[in-house]
Design goal:
The protein has 336 residues and is mainly beta. Helices cover 0% and strands 54% of the residues.
Length: 336
Amino acid sequence: GVATINASTGLVTGVAAGTATMTYTVAGTGGCADATATRTVTVSAAPSAGTLSGTQTVCVAGTTTFASTVSGGSWSSSAAGVATINASTGLVTGVAAGTATMTYTVTGTGGCANATATRTVTVTPSNTIALGSAAGTNAQTLTLGAAITNITYTTTGATGATFSGLPAGVTGNWASNTATISGTPTAAGTFNYTVTMTGGCTGGTNTASGTIAVNAPAGPNIATSIGAVSGCIGDTVSVPVTINMASGISTAAISMAIGYDPTKLQCISSVTSLNSNISAGFLSNCGVFSGASQFRAAWFNLTPVAFNGLMFNVRFKILAAGTHSLQWDLATPGNC
């Protein structure tokens, strides 16, 4: 049950761990007794490397641990440039993308051969992200109300992406290894956005960023306004008419019409506090034009002027109580 031996050749075959005594016998002749000699043989159990376990994928610079059901062995890697393994603990560390075979060896005793078992590990490269749309699309400037030029990024390794810092009205979407930013901003300002990949191996460059600058629409180069005043019935009130010119803007002509209700206000053609910049050649009058009661003013000069503030006061006599509105005639060409 421990070992067998071939009677003629002496070939010993181990059967089970233990010790057996082998006897060699030479038959006696002429009445002599048989001669014998003995030799013991020890049968050692064959070693086992056991059953291996452990996650077989790892990121570059990531770790996983291999283990065996049999203790006492040592680990080695077939490709240390891809992944290393701690000889005693089985800690696997990814080095570069690729596949390596890890071998677990249990040393044989009593002349028995070493036992080995293997397990592969695949090292996955880190995610990558790169601008896929035209250069400069990740740093664009536009006016509020205009759609952005779509921004795309090409990704590898990731299974999705998140988007932060985008202006309202602009959204991000990831599909088939492409992150896309699109839409029409509904708010002005400078927006620094970030695209962050999700899934895969995030140990490398896992984000991309850019800027979307949204400018508010430019205001008018020249703006005029009508002031508000109060008074009693019978009073003559002076309503200020002001102008605001943007920097670098001048004008050589002014034409305007202000509508009023003649049942509530009586217009006075002459103005007061006329700005000296437009005093030469300035004309004003009150009347009915195309069925509408209006105060009209006009000025022209060959030399443009630039100024801000009060242009003049237009005067009205109050005929009735209540709130009376004055309105620009914006429908008639030449009026502002």
